[in-house]
Amino acid sequence: MTTATPDRGQRLVERIPLHQKQPTAKPPKKMPHWLARLLQLLAILLLLLLAVVSCRESEKPTSLATSTLAGPRLVTGPICLEEAVDVSGSMEQFRDQREQAELALFTFARRVLTDADRLSTAFFAGSGELALRPTALRSLTRPPRMPTITQPDGTNLGPAVDKLVAARTRNGKASTCAARALVVITDGLLGDEQAAISKSLRAGNYTRIFAVIPAETGWGRPSELTGGALDSVSVYHFTGSGLGARLASVFADGKPLDVVLGEIVGSLTGQHLDQLPTN
């Protein structure tokens, strides 16, 4: 019995790809139903979050020039701001920004504060020096000049606080305030011993204590502002300009420095800072 031998031409044709069986494409894998629903939900939540953030950002005052204090003034006497300004090397880059914010505060004070509301200022590095005795905020037209710091190296807040407290008494008479705040403009890298700074802050008998920190130096609470009396310090962040400022505004509730100062004033009078209505 003989076996038929395939024709050579037939074998050649079978080797030609066009005549071979083509592979069938596998259908694409479908996304699981639960995963599709989860992604849709996340997209909706993201849109809602963006809407909330956008609304909150649009309501924030952008400067004291376009803001006012809303609501009735709840304190019956003068408010007093005692400003301690960090002039160590790490804060030099923020000097112009601080002075512009203070000028905006003085103009704002002439619109919304009384003749009895006062500001005093001390500067500090390794030591502290008084620059401005308690003075009516409405009478100020320029930032106080920085006196010579006898110890320019270091960052010790305590000596500045001691000078501010001592300045309340003049000609044997101590000034009184319905509400008194210490405003520390610093990057928070303080070198005071905790027992010493706690003693100075308690001697100040402040209604509120604020640390106002550049957002560029960090968005959190500096570790140096913890322990003892430092736990009572409220930390605010002020912003510069550009993308970093917008991010700090969203994630660290950062604001321009003049706006931060205005909000502090409002916290003492019992009012809140609000944007002036636009025409």
From TrEMBL:
Gene3D superfamilies: von Willebrand factor, type A domain (3.40.50.410)
Start and end residues of each stretch annotated as Disordered: 1-29
Composition skew (Basic and acidic residues), residue ranges: 8-17
InterPro entries: vWFA_dom_sf (IPR036465)
Name the UniProt record assigns to this protein: VWFA domain-containing protein
